[in-house]
């Protein structure tokens, strides 16, 4: 946690699965303590999520997230992030960035 912003980084070669998402969400819920949180999510090394994983995160995130900044320094991850923002109409503010500094500055308005 950095000044009220939770930072998440996807690791290389770790599958983006519902099982992994459940574990991550459980940790985030423990940190959040029943509050909605602002997340700076570095997706640069994220693997391509399957449909089940995309649907799961779209459904579950609305109960936990106040605002989310997606950070990517790769074309592939940027494409994945932008596609998810188009396919799923999230009920919270979400925006794409190419660096975490700008992402965290943007998130501060939602703290």
Shape, per Cα inertia axes: globular
Portion in helices? 40-55%
Question: Which value, in Å, is the CA radius of gyration?
Answer: 13 Å
Regions with little confidence, pLDDT below 50 for 5+ residues? none
Largest sheet: 4 strands, parallel
Task: Give, in order, the helices and strands.
Answer: EHEHEHEH
Question: Roughly what fraction of the amino acids lie in strands?
Answer: 15-25%
Overall description:
- The structure is a single chain.
- The chain is an alpha/beta fold.
- 42% of the residues lie in helices and 20% in strands.
- The chain is built from 4 helices and 4 strands, in the order βαβαβαβα.
- It has a 4-stranded parallel sheet, with helices on both faces.
- Strand 3, helix 3 and strand 4 form a beta-alpha-beta unit.
- The longest helix has 15 residues.
- The model has no long low-confidence stretch (mean pLDDT 92).
Write the layout of secondary structure elements.
Elements: E1 5-9, H1 18-32, E2 37-42, H2 51-61, E3 65-71, H3 75-87, E4 94-97, H4 100-107
Parallel strand pairs: 1-2, 2-3, 3-4
Task: Kindly list the characteristics that best describe this protein.
111 residues; alpha/beta; four-stranded parallel sheet; 42% helix; 20% strand
Q: In a nutshell, what does this entry contain?
A:
By secondary structure, this protein is an alpha/beta fold.
